[in-house]
Specification:
Immunoglobulin-like; four-stranded mixed sheet; 626 residues; alpha+beta; four-stranded antiparallel sheet; 19 helices; globular; 10% strand
């Protein structure tokens, strides 16, 4: 039967990934260095061993500065004593970070001056020696880096996992092609039950009896009696973001680029995840339009919008304040903002806005009309005015609101950033508003900026001010839905408009950021949900939707599986992966907790299990809606 076949396929996929990743972990293990001067130590992920060998007659101070830390002060790593009178050099061992390139600076304790500087990118679990010596001139210090033992290749597990999934995808594509052959079809009919086999073949080959949702709310009537499959496309795209979200939340194999960016810039994590807000806006437009076409009363839809928003907010508050293992909940540290809370409020604003301006029936605008090319925007001009007014409020608060002891318009991380001048100014106006409105103990206490910039102030990346820009991103997604509604079945028009929107948003992003990570007017920043962050991600979302729309709706090359299935139960999958994160089979005790391979295997297996669960729920027609 089809469910069992799919179940076994994804189970085998998860097991193969686990086995190969464990093999990769074994391959990357190696004995500790046998360097004669080195004291053996157990290195963790993203760490390397550095021995500084001092051959001069002066104490040296070792400072370190990460390339990833913008305008930061070098941090003292330790002191290396002077060479004793006997002439034997002194050696001090350190552990250094390998995620980003570092600048090592040696200063003399007597002269308080820089003696030498070395820029180097250390490899994970490598062993290195930094020799400090005088050459021909006693006053001239030379520093040279020596690799005592090579680092491991920590990216092999990713390569193995990619090859495995690519191989399984290729096998699936080959099987789907082969079973279309008449010979194979007849063979299947002979081998199995006629009724069941025909159901299997039909369900796999082009007449999928797929439910769009637990309700028919999001079905959009299409011409020629054909249901528009675009919502399937976008739900699959959003589900891809959801699957990546699970992978990231489970640890992302311990790789830094699968984590949130410390401050400005984008990692793969930030690049993929927040487009889920964009897709939510698209779904809102298609869903409400279908409901209005079927004659559902606006008052009923309004009540449903409020109820769903409240449920999202309530679920979000519950899952970010877990106390099933740590005892009774402390109201003093009760966190209020969160991902689902922001999604709930964003959904509320965008859905109500669309409900107010949407029409019960779409007017057929003739292509000869002068404003035909922009009627999907002009028809909803009040909504655009409202969103632009919201964005004006964000700009004014961000750049004009006075923040005590901080420069007006500050967008930095505080801490050791900006040369340590604004240590308690993390997030500028955004952080100040959250701390004033919600109080310090009710927002996120360990922001990602703490790792690199050593910030001490609490800062919530899902705070109040950033929600304005999440509304903007959802509204841009809503615009994608309007394009589908007004140019239904006009594939060229839809693709062209997606590309135009992507181009416009890309130009805006380039102007705001000056095509740089830190030097723009408004840098790309996930923590702040900056305007450039929204325009950049929305730009790539529109371009990516061109691919999804063309491959799924136009050419029908791909059904959206397996990403489609988690999208059918997105809330259940999101809440489930948060609640059961610490339970088997989503987590187990690893033989080597400092192995990227084992972390990656565990995280991939956990994510694959949720895909299997989502698929089985889909086959059983079980959908959890709020």
């Amino acid at each position: 039967m089809a469910p069992e076949r799919e179940y076994y396929r994804w189970t085998v996929c998860a097991v193969i990934v686990l086995l190969i990743a464990l093999c990769a972990a074994h391959m990357t293990d190696r004995p500790a260095s046998s360097h004669p001067h080195r004291k053996t130590s157990v290195l963790k992920m993203d760490e390397a061993s550095l021995s500084v060998i001092n051959e001069i007659e002066d104490d040296m101070m070792l400072y370190v500065l990460s390339d990833h830390c913008f305008q930061c002060l070098p941090q003292l790593l330790g002191i290396i004593p002077a060479r004793p009178a006997s002439g034997t050099p002194t050696m001090v061992g350190f552990v250094v970070d390998t995620q980003h390139a570092l600048t090592l600076q040696l200063n003399s304790t007597s002269a308080h001056s820089e003696q030498c500087k070395v820029h180097f990118h250390f490899g994970e679990q490598g062993n290195y020696s930094l020799w400090v010596k005088n050459l021909n001139e006693p006053s001239r210090v030379n520093c040279s880096m020596i690799i005592d033992s090579d680092p491991i290749n920590s990216y092999l597990p990713i390569l193995f996992a990619f090859l495995v999934f690519a191989f399984l995808a290729a096998l699936s594509a080959i099987w789907n092609t082969v079973k279309r052959l008449d010979v194979v079809t007849n063979l299947l009919l002979c081998l199995g039950s006629t009724v069941e086999t025909e159901r299997l073949i039909n369900s796999e080959l082009g007449t999928p009896n797929r439910l769009i949702d637990a309700s028919t709310e999001s079905i959009i009537p299409a011409t020629a009696g054909r249901r528009l499959r675009s919502l399937d496309t976008f739900r699959g795209y959003g589900a891809l973001s959801l699957i990546v979200l699970e992978m990231i939340n489970y640890g992302g194999g311990g790789y830094w680029f699968f984590r949130h960016e410390s401050w400005n810039g984008l990692t793969l994590c930030n690049f993929l995840l927040r487009r889920f807000v964009f897709i939510m806006g698209t779904s809102v437009g298609l869903s409400l339009s279908g409901s209005l076409r079927r004659g559902v009363k606006r008052t009923h839809l309004l009540w449903r919008i409020f109820w769903r928003s409240f449920q999202l907010f309530l679920i979000g508050v519950i899952i970010i304040n877990p106390n099933y293992c740590s005892g009774p909940l402390s109201w003093d540290s009760f966190r209020i903002p969160g991902v689902l809370q922001r999604l709930g409020f964003t959904y509320l604003v965008v859905a109500v806005l669309d409900l107010v301006v949407s029409r019960d029936r779409l007017n057929n605008i003739l292509s000869s009309e002068t404003w035909y090319s922009v009627h999907d925007v002009c028809l909803y001009w009040p909504a655009w005015v409202f969103v632009i007014a919201l964005e004006t409020i964000w700009l004014c608060l961000t750049f004009l609101l006075p923040v005590p002891a901080c420069p007006t318009g500050y967008l930095g991380p505080g801490g050791i950033g900006d040369f340590g001048q604004y240590q308690n100014c993390t997030g500028g106006a955004s952080g100040y508003i959250d701390r004033w409105l919600l109080r310090d103990n009710h927002i996120y206490q360990t922001p990602s900026s703490r790792v690199v910039y050593q910030t001490m102030m609490p800062f919530d990346p899902e705070g109040v001010l950033g929600t304005i820009n999440s509304i903007l991103m959802a509204f841009l997604g809503l615009q994608a839905g309007k394009i589908l509604l007004h140019y239904r079945d006009q594939h060229r028009q839809i693709i062209t408009r997606f590309l135009i929107w992507g181009f416009i948003l890309g130009i805006i992003s380039a102007a705001l950021t000056k095509c740089s990570r830190n030097d723009g007017f408004i840098p790309v920043n996930k923590n702040l949900w900056s305007l450039s962050y929204v325009t950049t991600l929305s730009c790539f979302a529109f371009v990516a939707l061109v691919f999804f729309y063309y491959s799924v709706d136009v050419k029908k090359w791909w059904s959206g599986a397996p990403f489609f299935y988690p999208g059918m139960n997105s809330i259940l999958v999101y809440v489930g992966h948060e609640v059961f994160e610490e339970y088997f089979p989503f987590r187990w005790k690893m033989a080597n907790s400092q192995s990227h391979a084992e972390h990656l295997a565990q995280n991939l297996v956990a994510t694959s299990v949720w895909v299997i669960i989502a698929y089985l729920l889909y086959r059983k027609k079980i959908f959890w809606k709020i």
